[in-house]
Design brief:
A hairpin with a 3-residue loop joins strand 15 and strand 16. The protein is built from 23 helices and 18 strands. It has 527 residues and is of the alpha/beta class. The protein is 42% helix and 15% strand. The strands form six sheets. Strands 16-15-14-17-18 form a five-stranded mixed beta sheet. Helix 8 runs parallel beside helix 10, helix 11 runs parallel beside helix 15 and helix 12 runs antiparallel to helix 15. It folds into two domains: 351 residues, Queuine tRNA-ribosyltransferase-like (TIM Barrel, Alpha-Beta Barrel); 154 residues, no CATH class. The protein binds zinc ion. The site of zinc ion has 7 residues, from helix 13 and helix 15. It catalyses: guanosine(15) in tRNA + 7-cyano-7-carbaguanine = 7-cyano-7-carbaguanosine(15) in tRNA + guanine. Exchanges the guanine residue with 7-cyano-7-deazaguanine (preQ0) at position 15 in the dihydrouridine loop (D-loop) of archaeal tRNAs. Its EC number is 2.4.2.48.
Length: 527
């Protein structure tokens, strides 16, 4: 484990961590938002960011400071903390953004790192190449080579206690992103920004963003603090945290405010379109939309910026509580409903379910089945994967109903969509305690059928009968042919009333039938 980053709670690949920033003498709890402070434009002063918004880390641009004579002299003279009047940690960017924007800059990694050290930066950045999405592979590779050299120069530089970023680029090529992540992770640098995702987010390509971050994360170790560079819209924070991003920076709060735009967790509104303010922050409780529209442009920008920051910090707190409660996926699912592009992002996240599954805690408080996507959560994949530890013998009834009277079967297992079959003794273990709606969708039944299929595969000598409650054809088609199918109503008529009694499980936990089942229940909840 890296000694400056300590992981506490986790949910999915998201985590609550503690990033020690030795030069600032502070420890930052992650996920954290770094408000972007433009040294030329004082929208909300750093002192207010600290006292009113609770910001304990911010980001500003060392290249802007270096190329402005007045700012440069002041920063070198009194240091960044005094110049900005901020006591938390200060990260500085290097000019890479300007390089991407204007094609050239007048500095090198060696020089800009020395400058960052001289002005009192706590977390510095080398000059990497932010390669935009969709470029030719050759360009992405050439750019990566330059970024790799920048990281080598940064490793060679004398940076003292200052932490140094190791940006991960690679455009929209997942294999390059993964390789870049692995390379950055192997350096002795400290914080790992995933770069050049802003063009994807601006174009609402949240699925591409998810693929880029997931690839970078595969290369980076679990203990690497990851910064999603340029990401700070509250709508996408839960998704990004679920992927394992720890740091975010927001220029959006100020840039959008300048443009009359109002951020919410469901997207962006234009002040001119708002008749009501759907927020309880100090600004939205004190002012009406008309008040804001009537304010002078400077004041309006200021008030909107404050609201934008409040709503962003509030979302981060909500996300952290969700990690503590183990229901981050439910929050991601909720946010995914705010825009079709967010739904694409969420579905892309579920494409990486095996990757998430490795970090997702095995046991949580609750699993709420809230949409057909819930059928593809890591818990379902994990349950299917563990079929290889569940031993079934003789003739086993897999049923959505209760245990039948009589001795037609050697064992009776429950079947619960979306998980599939399991011995009754596991009924009270996570995630089989999931809250599932009465009106299930096709995905849930199809996933349950996959579970049946896995169980049959792992136990070729056992015979199975599946008593299902009106499963759709698409699910039944996924059940292996060797399994005898019966509808629940038929089974209950033939075997006695008890068989149709739903949820009679508690009584069945110590049922003699279960002794035939050598399910490894301890192993199931241990990992
Ligand atoms: Zn507000």
């Amino acid at each position: 484990m890296r000694d400056h980053f300590e992981l506490r709670d986790g949910d999915l690949a998201g985590r609550i961590g503690r990033l020690s920033v030795p030069r600032a003498g502070v420890t930052v709890e992650t996920p954290a938002l770094l408000p972007v402070v433009n040294p030329n434009i004082d929208t909300i002063s750093p002192a207010r960011l600290e006292s009113e918004f609770g910001a304990d880390i911010l980001i500003t641009n060392s290249y802007i400071i270096k190329t402005n004579e007045h700012l440069r002299e002041e920063a070198l003279d009194v240091g960044l903390h005094e110049m900005l009047d901020f006591h938390g940690a200060i990260m500085t960017d290097s000019g890479s953004f300007q390089l991407a924007e204007y094609g050239e800059i007048d500095t090198t990694t060696e020089e800009i790192l020395q400058f960052q050290r001289d002005i009192g930066t706590d977390i510095a950045t080398p000059v990497d190449i932010p390669t935009p999405p969709d470029v030719a592979r050759e360009q992405a590779e050439t750019d990566l080579e330059i970024t790799r050299q920048a990281l080598a120069d940064a490793e060679a530089a004398d940076t003292g206690e200052m932490l140094v970023n190791a940006p991960v680029q690679g455009s929209t090529y997942p294999d390059l992103r993964e390789e870049a992540g692995r390379h950055a992770d192997a350096t002795d640098l400290d914080v790992f920004p995933v770069g050049a995702v802003v063009p994807m987010m601006n174009a609402y390509r949240y699925d591409d963003m998810v693929d880029a971050v997931a690839a970078a994360k595969r290369g980076l170790g679990v203990d690497a603090p990851v910064h999603l560079f340029g990401a700070g819209h509250p709508m996408m924070l839960a998704l990004a945290v679920a992927l394992g991003c720890d740091l975010f920076d927001s220029a959006a709060y100020a840039l959008y405010a300048r443009d009359g735009r109002y951020l919410t967790v469901r997207g962006t509104e234009h002040l001119e379109d708002l008749e009501y303010l759907p927020c309880t922050c100090p600004i939205c409780t004190e002012y009406s939309p008309d008040d804001l529209r009537a304010a002078g442009s400077k004041e309006q920008e200021q008030l909107l910026a404050e609201h934008n920051l409040h709503v962003t910090f509030a979302e981060l707190r909500r996300i952290k509580q969700a990690i503590r409660d183990g229901d981050l996926m439910e929050l991601v699912e909720e946010r995914a409903r705010s825009h079709p592009a967010m739904l694409d992002g969420y579905r892309a996240l579920l494409d990486h379910v095996d990757q998430l599954e490795r970090e997702d805690p095995a046991s949580k408080g609750a699993f709420f089945y809230a949409s057909n996507e819930s059928a593809h959560r890591p818990e379902v994949a994990r349950h299917h994967a563990r079929m290889d530890r569940l031993t079934a013998e003789g003739h086993v009834l897999l049923t959505e109903g209760g245990t039948p009277s009589g001795d037609d079967f050697d064992a009776t297992w429950r079947v619960v969509p979306p998980f599939g079959p399991f011995p009754r003794s596991l009924s009270e273990t996570y995630p089989l305690t999931a809250e599932v709606p009465e009106r299930l969708d096709r995905d849930a039944y199809e996933q349950a059928a996959r579970g049946v299929s896995r169980l049959v595969e792992e136990n070729p000598d056992a015979a199975f009968t599946l008593a299902h409650d009106d499963w759709p054809e698409s699910a039944l088609a996924r059940v292996p042919e060797s399994v005898e199918l019966e509808s629940l109503s038929t089974v209950s008529e033939r075997l006695g009333d008890e068989a149709s009694a739903d949820e009679s499980d508690e009584a069945d936990v110590s049922d003699g039938d279960d002794e035939r089942v050598e399910g490894d229940s301890a192993g199931l909840s241990d990992e």
